[in-house]
Amino acid sequence: MKMREDNEKYNKMIEILRNSRPELLRPEEIEDKVIRRIRHERSKAEITSGFIETVFGWVYIDWVRRSLIGVAFVLIAVFIYQQASILKQVNNISNQVVIPGIGQGTASSSEFDKKLTIYKISSGLSGDREIKISENQLEELLDSYQDLQGKYKDLLRIIEENPELNKYIEKRLDEEKNNKPDL
Amino acid sequence: MKKKIINLIFNIMKNRKLKQLITLMLVTVASCNQPETIVTNIVHRDGSVTRRIEMRNSENKFEVSDLQVPYDTTWIIRDSMEFTGEGDTVWVKRAEKLFADIEEINRDYLADSGANKDIFRHAEFRKKFKWFNTEYSFSEVIEKKMSYGYPVREFLNQDELRWFYSPYKLTDEKKNGPDSLKYRAFNDTVDKKLEKWYMKNLVSEWIGEFSVLTGESVSNKLTKESLKLRENEFVEILRKDIEHFDSLWQNGTLLRKFIGEANAMKYKTEADSAAITATERFWVDFKPYTVRSLMPGKTTDTNGFIDSAGFLLWPVNSDFFLTEPYIMQAESKTPNLWAWMVSGLFLLFVITGTAFKRKS
User: Fold this and answer.
1) pTM, to two decimals
2) Which residue from A11, A90, A125, B69 has the least number of CB within 10 angstroms?
């Protein structure tokens, strides 16, 4: 019973609210505001799409699109080529022999031999020529001189002890003496 | 018998080694304390070069006239004394200078009054923009001494050339290492070939100079072309008589063999002048040193060696620039990061555009 009364009250209230609508003072103003807001939304979308159209307008021009795609491929190819060649060159360099320490040290005996060979050929033509060697080279030279002296002594002993060899060498020396000018 | 043995000793003395020794004893043997010098070039991207010189000597004596490379008081100099592993004292002079460009280095070379002042040296720097990378090339060049010589590569194969251009430290290490016999034999082969090269260069230089001095006045038999055709013959004569070269040249025997009796008389003065010029050019008065370089970015190419500190290294010896310019060259590349970014953006732009086209 009570529930029915409540429902009736509620329906009456709704009916009253429906019949008492608010009165719009300036309905044109609201209309304007709504239209402006809709227009603004539309212009935003138009600007964005206009920008995209401008930036990517070239995609509709066939030759420009093809050219830019071509340039992009060329760039990729150049990049791959350059980096691959650098990688290859760097690998080649890293495979090179690493010299222990720095510098070349003092001149070696072979360099000294070269100096002597050059001197031997050219000394007669340039009398005032000097040859400069380091202390180490001089020591090396004296050592090899002593070594050579020892070997000559051994050689002479061997020749003296062997009559056949002695005879043969005497013969060769005589031949050589006859062939070459006596200095 | 005794007389024969004396004769034998005399003849044995004609042996190359001993003759060299006697020759050496007849000349002034100066125990010169030349400093062991290393020149380091640190090349910068803008073409400026920081040049460092390290000179080591057993005496505290660093006269400019004894030094291998130009150096003066405008350099920042540091002197020190060090001890070697054997306990010997070594005096070290370190000098450093920033050269604004290559021209400044070349001016120093031109004004050099050091031990190697008679050698023409210069440096080159090149920078090439290649979009993604910039390429740098730096080289030190020593001009050749002989005008009519032969390149050493015509006498040595690839392995021998590598050996020839190697620093002593490397070759000596090999000659005294585990395969010493093999390397010593190899070294002897190289030396023999080099001796032939020396002879051929000397003869070629003499022919060239002699032809210039005699000019048009000579008969057909003495033109440069005809003498060149007989070059190997001359070399053989020279090689055969090398032991008596001095006296044979002085008494005219060699010249008569080369160009005949009548011409030898007629052109003796020209022949002597040519021989003096040839030997002057052949005998390079030079103190060896070492050049090192550090390039900007990644090193991509070099004709030098690499030392344990990662520097590029070249030994400098007189033989290297006897008949050809000696070029110590290094190339490197640095990435242009801004170009990478620009290219990346461009690719993104093209890819987006293409995708946009498909979508629309």
Assistant:
1) 0.72
2) A11
